[in-house]
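Q: Please design a sequence for this.
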């Protein structure tokens, strides 16, 4: 048996570090945009990539917009967009995204008529805008966390297959040893039978010689000579069978040594493989916990 699978014990980062979950928060601040420095709603979507956020953000805007979506690669302007929870009047939304080490920062300016909405202008509308952005941010962050969870689940599945493979290898090797041991017993029993055949052939030869010495008739002597040759051949066949069986027994014993070594190797590999499975389970649990607690 050749072990093609390899197992390595690597340092596994703490799940609390890998899957540190951050809250999505929306804040207000004056930020520069195409119409000057105006009140913006700003949030960070952790671990996100700009192309993904830009695509999903414009999909959300397009769903409620009757006007154009203009994207000059720096700023997106969406006209005639109705967000019922914010205002019954169609709004104009300007937005910008910046990818950082932490994720993607989304800045959005909401214009109702000629007025940029802010908390001082309208607390209710401002809260509704914050919820609108927050819900989008949570949706995107959960999508990221879901992908991470699925990756960790796949890794766990792969590691479990490795462990199961070593268990299977051990069982296969042990079965091969058991089968070889049974074959040896059968061959040893055959040797005993052949040893009995040799004794019988020798006894037949001796009896034949005793009778042949008493025969004076030429025809009878020829008959006994032919029988003697048959007994000699019987003995030779039995001896050859024993030699052949012994060679097979030696090969089987070599196989037993090899398969015992394979079983030991598979058994040893199960330890680190099992440790990797258990460690990965903590990663899956941490990723699931992260997804469940995004808010």
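A: Design:
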């Amino acid at each position: 048996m050749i072990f093609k699978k390899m197992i390595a014990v690597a340092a596994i980062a703490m799940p609390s570090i890998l899957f540190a979950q951050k809250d999505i928060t929306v804040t207000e601040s004056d930020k520069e945009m195409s119409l000057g420095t105006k009140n913006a709603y700003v949030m960070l979507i952790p671990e996100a990539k700009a192309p993904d956020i830009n695509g999903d953000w414009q999909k959300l805007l397009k769903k409620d917009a009757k006007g154009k979506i203009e994207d000059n690669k720096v700023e997106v302007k969406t006209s005639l967009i109705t967000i019922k929870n914010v205002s019954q009047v169609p709004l104009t939304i300007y937005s910008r995204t910046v990818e950082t080490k932490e994720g993607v920062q989304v800045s959005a300016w909401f214009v109702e008529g000629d007025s940029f909405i802010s908390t001082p202008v309208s607390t209710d509308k401002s809260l509704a805008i914050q919820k609108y952005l927050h819900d989008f941010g949570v949706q995107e962050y959960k999508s990221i966390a879901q992908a991470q969870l699925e990756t960790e689940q796949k890794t766990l599945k792969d590691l479990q297959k490795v462990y199961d493979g070593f268990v299977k290898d051990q069982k296969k090797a042990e079965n091969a040893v058991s089968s070889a041991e049974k074959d040896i017993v059968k061959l040893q029993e055959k040797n005993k039978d052949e040893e009995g055949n040799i004794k019988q052939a020798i006894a037949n030869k001796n009896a034949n010689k005793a009778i042949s010495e008493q025969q004076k008739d030429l025809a009878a002597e020829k008959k006994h000579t032919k029988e003697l040759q048959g007994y000699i051949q019987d003995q030779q066949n039995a001896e050859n069978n024993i030699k052949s069986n012994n060679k097979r027994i030696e090969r089987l014993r070599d196989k037993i040594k090899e398969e015992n070594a394979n079983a030991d190797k598979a058994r040893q590999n199960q330890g680190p493989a099992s440790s990797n499975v258990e460690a990965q389970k903590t990663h899956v649990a941490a990723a699931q916990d992260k997804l469940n607690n995004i808010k």
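Q: Thanks. Anything notable?
A: The chain is about 65% helix and 15% strand. Residues 69 and 78 are 5 Å apart (CA to CA).
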